[in-house]
Amino acid sequence: MKILVINGPNLNLLGIREPEIYGNRTYADLVKFIGDVAADCGIEVEVRQTNHEGVIVDWIQECRGKFDALVLNAAAYTHTSVAVHDAIKAVQVRTVEVHLSEPKSRDDFRKVSFIESVAEKTCSGRGFESYADAIRHLAGRGIFCRRLARGEGV
């Protein structure tokens, strides 16, 4: 299985931006965490980040025929982008929406997700573990990854 993980605007600022919400770990820490979880699940993963909506759309379109699934943290575009919604709908790749925080418990404008209706699942509010939840879900809908099967945490 091959998964593309797309991270949207400002995720490159992890560890700097609002650490009381997003924590002190960096974007490099997140990329390593995602890679470790994917390897543990026997999944090939590619992780990308951009601050540009059109690039996100291009990468989603690239999924068709190249990736088996998409993990998407569209960040602020979650609440504003019909273009990202339409790209996911057009490509029809299995998609899990991810957020480090819990958007629905924050500002009113964050309560609306244009991604939610085209994603098969949303994993949010658990920091880096939201990504682990998404990858494990895509790994087989209930099939445990190796470390979990041995009773170890990731």
Shape verdict:
globular
In the sheet with the most strands, the strands line up as 2-1-3-4-5
Beta-strand portion reads: 15-25%
The count of domains is 1
Question: Can you identify the CATH class?
Answer: Alpha Beta
Q: Report low-confidence residues grouped into runs of 5 or more.
A: 146-154
Helix content: 25-40%
Tell me the CATH superfamily. Dehydroquinase, class II
Would you give the CATH topology?
A: Rossmann fold
Show the helix and strand layout.
Elements: E1 2-7, H1 19-22, H2 27-40, E2 44-49, H3 53-62, E3 69-73, H4 82-91, E4 94-99, E5 121-124, H5 129-138, H6 146-149
Parallel strand pairs: 1-2, 1-3, 3-4, 4-5
Descriptive notes:
With 154 residues, the chain is of the alpha/beta class. It has one domain (2-149): 3-Layer(aba) Sandwich (Rossmann fold). Helices cover 34% and strands 18% of the residues. It has six helices and five strands. It has helices at 19-22, 27-40, 53-62, 82-91, 129-138, 146-149, and strands at 2-7, 44-49, 69-73, 94-99, 121-124. It has a five-stranded parallel sheet, with helices on both faces. Helix 2 (27-40) packs parallel to helix 5 (129-138) and helix 3 packs parallel to helix 4 (82-91). The longest helix has 14 residues, at 27-40. It starts with a strand and ends in a 5-residue tail after the last helix. Residues 146-154 have low confidence and may be disordered.
